[in-house]
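Self-study notes.
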Amino acid sequence: MVNVKLRGIAEGRLGTGNMECTGTNVLEIVKEVSFQDENLKHNLFDESKNMPRRLCKVLVNGKIATLDQPVDSNDDVMLGTVFTCDG
C-alpha cells in the first residue's frame, strides 16, 4: 500500500488529506484516487485517453512523476491539481 497525500480538488471532494492506494505506478494511483468520486473522476481523469488530465500532477519524492513511474510504500507520493488563476 502507498500512502498518497491529496491536495486541491481531490482533498476537497474526498474529505481527506491522505489515502491508502494499492497501485504500483503513478497511472494506477491517479485512477484509483479519481474513481473514488464521479465528479473527481471527471476533473482528474480522461477515460477516453486512459490518462490523467493535464492539470493533474503527481510528485514522487518531491519530483514530478511520469505515468509509468513505479511507486512503493517507501515513496512520498502527492497528488495535486494545478488551477489557473486570472488575478
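Second protein, same conventions, sequence then structure:
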Amino acid sequence: MSTTAQHDELGQNGPAPDDGRACEEAGTGAHVAIQALAARGVTARTIVDADESWLIVGHDTATDAHALLHLYRGEEDGTDVNRVPDPDRDNWYVATVGTDGLELVLTMQPAGELEVCVEALAAWADAGRPARNVPAELRDLYGRFADGYTPEDIRAVFDRIHRAGGPYLVCVWEYADAHGFGGNSQFYAENAEGDHFEVEPDVHLWLSGRTELPAPMCGWVCDPVTGPTDYPVSDDFHNYARTCRTAD
C-alpha cells in the first residue's frame, strides 16, 4: 500500500476536534484504534486516498519509519479504517515500513483482536522502530520449513544462520531412537558455554512462511531456559533430544 496520501484527515498525530474538519466518528475502526494506541503512548493519524483509508502509526519524522493499520475484508472491498468493524467480516492488517520504504506484515488479526495489534505496535515503537530485516544472503530461508523439517534441514539452515552472524540455534526434539530424531520440537539458542535461551517466536514463523521477515537477528535471543538442559542425545551440531528410546 502506498503511504502517499491524497488527503490527510487529521494532519497531526491525533484528532484535532476544533479545527473545523471531520474527525473519526465514534465506533469506527479509526476511532477505537487511535484511542487504544494513545493509551499506550503511540500516535496515529488517518490517511484517506480515494475510496481507501488507513492509519499511519508511530511515525518517526526523522527517519520516516512508521507502521500501517487498517481493516480489510477482501480484494473487492479494499481497505477502510473509517468504517465500523464487522466482527464476522473484518480483519486488522498491521505492517511496518522501514526507512527504505519496505512494507512488511507485522500481524493480521480478526476484528475483535485489536488489542493484539496495539500490543505489537507498541512493542515495535518502544523498541525504537527497528528495521525488521535479516542479511540478504538469508532471505531465501523464508518459508523453508513450510512443509515441516528434518534434522538434516535443521543442520543446514541453522548452520547458514550462524555463519551469517546469527545466534547458534538448536532444535530440541521429543525423542531420538534408532531411526533418528522425532516427535515435537522446540527451537532454542545456545551459547559457547552450552547454556540455552528462548528464541523470538517469529523466527519460527518466518522459517515456516507465516511472516515475511522476523525481527533483526540481534534480538532473536531471549530469556534463559529454566529447567534442565542436559539432553541425553545430540548430533553435536544443531539437534538434541529430550529422551532416548531404545528397541525392546
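Instructor comment on the second fold: Confidence is low (pLDDT under 50) at residues 1-23.
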